[in-house]
Amino acid sequence: MTRLLLVDDHAVVRSGLKMLLSGHEEMEIVGEAGSAAEAMLEAERTNPDVILMDIGLPDKTGIEATRDIKKKFPDVKIVALTIHEDEEYFFQMLDAGASGYVPKRAAPDELITAIRAAAAGEVYLYPSMAKLLVRDYLNAERPAEEKLNLDGLTDREREVLTHLAEGAGNDEIAEALVISPKTVERHRENIMRKLNLHSRSELVRYAIRKGIIKA
Predict the structure, then answer these.
(1) Which of 68, 161, 196, 206 has the fewest CB atoms within 10 Å, counting from its CB?
(2) 50 touches 78 (CB < 8 A)
(3) CATH number attached to the domain at 142-209
(4) Long-range contacts made by residues 65-73, C-beta under 8 angstroms, separation at least 24?
(5) CA 61, 91, 116, 102 torsion: positive or negative?
(6) Does the domain at residues 2-137 carry the CATH identifier 3.30.870.10?
(7) Mean pLDDT computed over 186-190
(8) How far is it, in rounded angstroms, from Cα 73 to Cα 192?
(9) Three-state secondary structure call for residue 6
(10) Dist. CA 122–CA 209, nearest whole Å
(11) Can you give the pTM of this predicted structure?
């Protein structure tokens, strides 16, 4: 059972989401919030698996709310559900820790797919948003010495990289690999340094390019 928290400042949107999701037996809506502050309180109270996060909240942006929640609850998966489809918001949400990005105009099946992917520890990007990643990569100026392979990473670092690319948190990776969360964090820092990556969105772009995950 996937426990869901709905975060949107419009009650009618939350009501529509509840009607849509109630038809799926494997999903349970455990709470809802209309602001970033309420989202944090509800996350603490309900311990959700996946949070559907709007970007336009009255007190903080959904980007800030995502960053705050992921800092306190790193294993919670967050899927952006928003009217915003421009790259500025998209990349900021990835950097904040989101595991998915779905426009509100998307078909209901797209949202269900995103929720299921996030709950399974995968990353889901709506096709038009995934194209932004591809365009950003193709247009980016990259140093000539950039390595297009995984040489330089230890076997353990490659394992950690795969889990990170799939959206797993430190605790989940630690459990899967039977190591401590602190060790996972150290591996993560080494991976980012060796691959010259500086943010989550860069890591996701790298993972797509290398075929670790699919856009």
Answers:
(1) 196
(2) yes
(3) 1.10.10.10
(4) 65/7, 65/36, 65/39, 65/40, 66/93, 66/96, 66/97, 66/98, 67/96, 67/97, 68/36, 68/40, 69/39, 69/40, 69/43, 70/96, 70/97, 72/40, 72/43, 72/44, 73/43
(5) positive
(6) no
(7) 89
(8) 21
(9) strand
(10) 16
(11) 0.67
> Tokens at residue 35, please?
């602001």
Strand-pair category, 50-53 with 27-33: unpaired
Instruction: Say whether pLDDT at 149 is over 90.
Output: no
CA-to-CA distance for 117 and 111, rounded, in angstroms? Answer: 10
Q: Which of 8, 160, 175, 190 is nearest to 82 (CA)?
A: 8
Asked if 76 contacts 104 with a C-beta cutoff of 8 angstroms, the reply is: no
Cα distances (angstroms) measured from residue 176 to each of 32, 98, 199: 30, 21, 23
Cβ proximity of 37 and 45 under 8 Å: no
User: Which tokens belong to 199?
Assistant: 């943010």
The CA distance from 126 to 103, in Å, is 7
Distance CA 64, CA 56 (A): 11
Domain map of the chain by residue range? Answer: 2-137, 142-209
Summarize the confidence of residues 166-176 as an average pLDDT: 82
Token code pair at residue 81: 């559900």
Q: Nearest 5°: CA angle at 4, between 81 and 105?
A: 20
